[in-house]
Amino acid sequence: MTAAKLAKALNLSRTTVSLVLNGRAERYGLSPETVERVLEGARRLNYQPDPVARQLAGMRSNVVGILVNSSYVVDPRLLERMEVLAAERQLRFIIGHAIGSADKVREYLQDFRGRRVDAIVSFHHNRPVSGGGVLSELAQTENVLFYEKPGPQVRDPWYVDTDTYEFGRLQTQHLVDRGRRRIGLIGLTETLYPVLRQRREAYQDVLRAARLPHGRELVWQVDEKRSLRWIEPPSEAEAAAIVEELVVRQKADGIVAVNDLYVARLIQAIRRTGRRVPEDVALVGGDNMDISTLIDPPITTIDVQIEALAQATVNLLFEMLGRSGSDEGRAAGGDTTDGAAASAGRGIIVKPQLVVRQSA
């Protein structure tokens, strides 16, 4: 099944089908009904674009390289949802899971280029292991979409980001509103995750505005080895150490945690001291993981809006590719931008939401 045959089967023009399959329908004013008709027909007739033929014809491959790294585990829910949304629009992902040094990352970038991917989505650029070299190289690569806004090396970037400051503000403000007056923070190592500095700053700003203690003694800094495994729960011994310091010694009556996995383990450790959650110690987690509703009490958390992040990433990806121009766009009579205009990026920042349950 070719795009031309699909168009004939649907009694639509080749241009209309092409615009829909390449994610440019909205830009050219095609109706939602037409878009759904084409996509449904493509699924029903099992339309699969031939990437080799497309490349030989100077067209897009409809393949995107996803750059991740072993030192920074991306939320698998986000990657899964991105892939589903992209596939609905005939776009495939190749995931490059670079392990180790910046040279290994460069090998993946070279591999992506060799496969003539249409674009690269980077989840790796803000990691210290890159040493700035990877970011500089990405800055010179065409069609790169960054998950997390990159540093100043990249001018006019295309990026999607979470409002990390708002994440920390929501966590802390909720505990303040619940009447907690000595609130602790569990944070990952900021040298590994520079963006998390904004969470800590939000925590401090909220407590400062409420005229509550916010000194270093109330901040538990997770070590580097544990920080790398942020998507795993801390051990019972690690949780016990946190509770001993923040709850027993520092008398914290509220804790802002890394994520829901930390809260789940802390609930157990706090109960072993004879204290109750949330009566004696209230806990707010993050990421709205499945475990947040599987433990007693259910966890008050911050939802990072996975669906919105995935949708924004895929939409922005298609917008970026549309701006850079394509043979199909020119054939459709669409306008093409010059190099300067095509390089002008855009960012989307998705705000997280507080989900109130019984842990706080």
Describe the fold and architecture.
Mean pLDDT is 83; it is low at 51-58 and 324-343. Helices cover 42% and strands 14% of the residues. Helix 1 packs across helix 3. The relative contact order is 0.13. With 360 residues, it is α/β, with parallel strands linked by helices. It has three domains: 3-48, lambda repressor-like DNA-binding domains (434 Repressor (Amino-terminal Domain), Orthogonal Bundle); 52-162 and 306-351, 3-Layer(aba) Sandwich (Rossmann fold), CATH 3.40.50; 164-304, Rossmann fold. The N and C termini lie far apart (56 Å).
Domain count: the total is 3
CATH superfamily of the largest domain: Response regulator
Proportion of residues in extended strands? 5-15%
The biggest beta sheet, please? 6 strands, parallel
CATH topology of the largest domain: Rossmann fold
What sort of overall outline do the alpha carbons produce when their principal axes are compared?
Answer: elongated
Mean pLDDT: 83
Low-pLDDT sequence parts: 51-58, 324-343
Straight-line N-to-C gap: 56 Å
Annotated CATH architecture of the largest domain? 3-Layer(aba) Sandwich
What's the Cα radius of gyration? 24 Å
Tally the beta strands.
12
Note the run of SSEs as H and E. HHHHEHEHEHEEHEHEHHEHEEHHHEE
Kindly name the structural category: alpha/beta
Number of helical elements = 15
